[in-house]
Amino acid sequence: MYCVRKVTEDLYWVGGNDRRLTLFENIHPIPRGVSYNSYLLLDEKTVLFDTVDWSAGRQFLENIEHVLDGRQLDYLVINHMEPDHGASIEEVLIRYPDVKIISTEKAFMMMHQFNFDVDGHMEEVQEGDTRSFGKHEVTFVAAPMVHWPEAMVTFDLTNGVLFAADAFGSFGSLDGKLFNDEVNFDRDWIDDARRYYTNIVGKYGPHVQALLKKAATIDIKMICPLHGPVWRSDLGYFLDKYDKWSSYEPEEQGVLIVYASMYGNTESAVNALATKLAVRGVTNVAMYDVSKTHVSELISETFRLSHLVLASVTYNLGIYPPMLNYLMDMKALNMQKRTVALIENGSWAPKSGALMEEFLDEMKQMTVLNEKVSVLSSLNEGSAIEMDQLVDGLIESMND
Ligand code: FEO
After folding, report:
1. Ligand 1 site residues, Cβ closer than 6 angstroms
2. Which tens digits make up the pLDDT trace of 328-365?
3. Does 232 share its domain with 334?
4. Nearest partner of 13 among 226, 234, 238, judged by Cα
């Protein structure tokens, strides 16, 4: 059975949801599922904007057939051809053999790499090109590395709708509610939106900044992303989040404590730290065990908060492997502009502090506080004094 939503008077959401998938990109947990959005415009010409992952393919094809109501499909605009959106392209071609695909040169190149049989359907466009479909005239804007190099976004000059590809998307399936004003985004969606952005697109902040600069020159009334809710109000809220995330500025002053503990002693030390911070009035503190928190959540929280405490046991004279994995992910995603405090632990040769500092030194604009704590097996009177000094250093830095 079809399941569609009207977006504007002549634009329909025809996508689908996947609540069965455990890991997005086979790496990021998505307990709330994910939506694959596609939009169908009924003008003098009929125009489909992007397709869906094959897991939602059957629903998608029923949706298109219902909305077209016997009409042919004239155009398929592919803003982003990664298979979570491009997987159903060939199925569309089989059902609508006269359709023309509008996309970028790189996207067509990749379609061929994925063995999509699109020859005879291709209509290549470049930045600034326009197309009229009747009442609606659209223009195409290059969006390289948001999130693949072939990506573009399409702006409807007639009604201000931006088909934003992966930009402004979110993890989470749509349970009937399509629009941002039908959900409590700041309560129910922002964590998934942040985790989506930071882990999927986070590395490409400068490219997102370039897209935001272009977006500032056009009068956007509505944002139709390829995942998550459609934005038709309060656009500034989400644009501001994207501006912060893509410039690696924290959303909030606060402390993220990520610890690696084998027998509970490092955990005990950071419990003492968090308590000292609370007593001193610093309550925006989040604490995670690196061994039992998925790294995508740690990355998301690292983008959210201004200060970071890394507390790691020494393991085989190195950094505890899950902590090293988190550090490597931070580096891979271009994380920067954070103030970091270090706590190391070791029973015979604590080395993790120096090793973590070396790692952070290779990242951009990471400030490591001079105050450090070195724990020998468990916090004692001497290391407790270091911890007090570390708390002083953190609070001083937060008040700067
Ligand atoms: Fe949602 Fe880059 O694909």
Report:
1. 80, 82, 84-85, 147-148, 166, 226-227
2. 999 999 999 999 999 999 999 999 999 999 999 999 99
3. no
4. 226
